[in-house]
Amino acid sequence: MPENGSMKSSIDPFETIESAQNFVTLLAEAASQARQELAMDVQRESSLRESRRLDALRIALYSVDKLEAHMNRSGRILNDLRTLRRLLFQERGTIPTIRSSVPERLAREAVHPEDIRTGKTENSQAA
What we know:
Layout: H1 17-48, H2 52-88, H3 97-109, H4 113-118, H5 122-126
């Protein structure tokens, strides 16, 4: 297998935040569908009698509920990361030359933790 990456003919499904977000969305939809099916199974089994099968269905339903909640939460986190990436790399249509000045500006405006403790910030020095 070559080490130069020429064997990478398939696309990595997590190469971008957007592709990971699509995967998480599909998984959340599948979990939601499984939750609905399990809820119907639990309802059907509970009308018959208490059984180990009913207990197993309830545990499965609980686990799928947790999975669905985690996937929805993960989708929101990925959306936040996408927004932060856009802000950091200024992907929202600003001029590309501005990007190179951002680290310099941040370095100039940085406040040292000792300055915060002693109250020496740019605003207090200007006064």
